[in-house]
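Q: Structure for this?
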Amino acid sequence: MNTAVAGAPELLRTILRHEGRNFAPWVLIATALSVSSVLVYPWIFPELSDRVALATAIGANPAFGMIFGPAFELTTSDGFNAWRTLALGGFLTGLGSIFAVVRTTRGQEDSGQAELLASGVLGRGSRLLAGVGFALVGSVMVGIVSAVSTGLCGGNWEDSFLLSATFTATGWMFAGVAAICAQLGSSARAANSIAVGILGALFLARGFAYSIEAPDWTVWANPLGWMTETRPASGDNWWPLLYAIAFTVIAILIAFALQYRRDFGFGIIPPRPGPASGKVRSVLALALRINRGPIITWTIAFAVLGIVYGYFATSVHDILAKDSSVAAILAAGATTPEALTSVFLLTILGLVGIIAAVPGVQTMIKVRSEEMEDRVEPLLAQAVSRPKYYAPNVLLALLMPAIYVLIAGLLIAALASSADIGVDFGDTFLQAVATVPAVWTITAVSVAIVGARPKVSIAAWVGVLAAFVLTILGPTFKLWDWILAISPFWHVPTVSAVDADWTGLIWISLVTLFFLAVGFAGFRHRDLAVS
Amino acid sequence: MSSDNVIEIENLDKWFGKVKALDKLNLSVERGQVHGFLGPNGAGKSTAIRVLLGLLKADGGTARVLDGDPWKDVVSLHRRLAYVPGDVSLWPGMTGGEAIDLLGSLRGGLDQKRRAELIERFELDPTKRGRQYSKGNRQKVAIVAALASDAELLILDEPTSGLDPLMEAVFTDVISAAKTRGVSLLLSSHILAEVESLADRLSIIRDGRIVETGTLAQLRGKARTTIHATFTRVPEVGALKSLHDVRIDGSKLTATADADKIGEAMKILTGYGLESLTVEPPSLESLFRRFYEGDEGEAAA
């Protein structure tokens, strides 16, 4: 065996055994996307007329084109699956592939594991080969599991295999991209940022090219465009996959060439030196600083969410006008088209609120992880009392979700009221505002847990989970009101109603205050950084 | 309690679940002194220090820092003390310079001139990010942040772990300078030599208790003298009861003796026809070992 890659098979086996489970979620998500399409589509859109209405609504909505790409064929469940799953499934497999390669190559250099390995009997190229091999194997797993599951659940076998092959191909190409980025970046984080940035840019470029019907070359210049052009269920072109294989091989060869030129532990792009003195001089400024990445990401996510749901609301008439089963889920009990849209908006804003609680809980979980990584200790060794440390973090955990809800609410209100469907801007935005106290109640659960019982910090998610199950799924299970009332979102009034009852918000805010008090008292009296 | 003591701990207990981390710990540090706090890993040094910082709540006994209660008077006390943890964890995306300024600002300001001097002396690059620093450099960031403050008490938990010998020398220098400014120090370590040159007084902790405390001279008095001797007649082990750690190899003997038993030991040894004799002055190392070795060490003696 070539000495340059000595030890690679053993290393790959070790990686598959110890890191394999990190790839499992990507396999599951991509499979779930595909399987759910073929299962749900015939159920929600049983009639051809429903399907044509859906195709028209999607065609009229540029936001869908940006995210899912073009809909070539929506009258079959395989065509629907190809539209709904191809772009996202590939994107997710690509992400999994990037993280797998970077973690097992560049990431090991940062953590020091690679130094132990490299000092053993291991060729210069072995670590990179094993890391890339891991991502290639993982991507193949995504393809096989997704194809077989989709076929078993009723998908056409060829369509399902081609669709799933595009996931694998995307995973392969981005294993190559990540392998190059792992040589460029000076840390695992930098390498991940570059690779995910490339994936994101190509994803947006593809959506944009199809939405504005740009010239053909803009599609063919984009590796993700090749995937869309395989057209599962509407032509079944297998040959663009050959491009993907060629791309993968070339990218991996470039990565190896770069690796031989670079020093261990260094990247080809040197890190920029930072400021020698700091402007972060308070706990709040620090909290903003360490949450900066998530804040930017979530702000963008909620803007996108607002645009998609806003557009969706304008076409909800057409999709739901008939007595279809979608209406039963999204707008239960509505009788007139106006009432339908109004109930739909209420459901959507509730969903936005529940999603907005996630970054709030994340902020609190971060407080705990900072504590366990010994970064809170030096702060509290300064003239900072515990409440003064906890308060700015709690403030951020409450304030940011509120801002996210308002961003999404503003966009939904603006887009929905711009169409002639009887939606009032003021009412819709006010509805978003009325959702905020419920978001706070859910976030406050995590404030209480992290403050008082951090050992069970997983329980910080209980609020989000309960709200989702009770508010979104609860009504379809026909649960009693007193159970549904456990979710704070049940108490959010319909602001456009004549007899809107606002007292519910006062009650849930009292609960919020109680949870906050428990959190602060707990954080004040407990031992820190003890697991 | 005496106001001359900056730290006063009496009968301090701390439990972690069923494990007793501190067991009736007593410790006092006089104002203006450097107090060495010695013990093996896991003896309870960091636990005691975390109680002094108000990070852990004591389960029994009392702890006073600068005449205040470390649990209740956190803010007022922490304005007057600075701390260097044993394992420094920095914010991955923030530079060392930013971390120093953040910690300084939270206390109420840094001496900018001393900050610059210390960065220079420790050859620290303040423009690197937290995730890029080696262990030693992370340690330097914490040391600069602590020493650039105007604290009257410094609590240092194994501050030189990860520093190279040159930097350790710089560290010794800046600590001496701090002492000259009138700063009191609690300096924990598991390496005796590090503390020996700086400390006025020492306390040795084992299994959560202070087993010995005193000045260097006092502790030396308690340490054993090492004796190497060669004989014409090989002595019986039973006859050497006043000696410790006896090892006989042919006609050669190596043993240790308590300070007050040296005369007695000499009388016995001369009876066997001494050919050569070397007596090593008592080292703290030997004392230190005596307390570290635990019951097995004692049984072998």
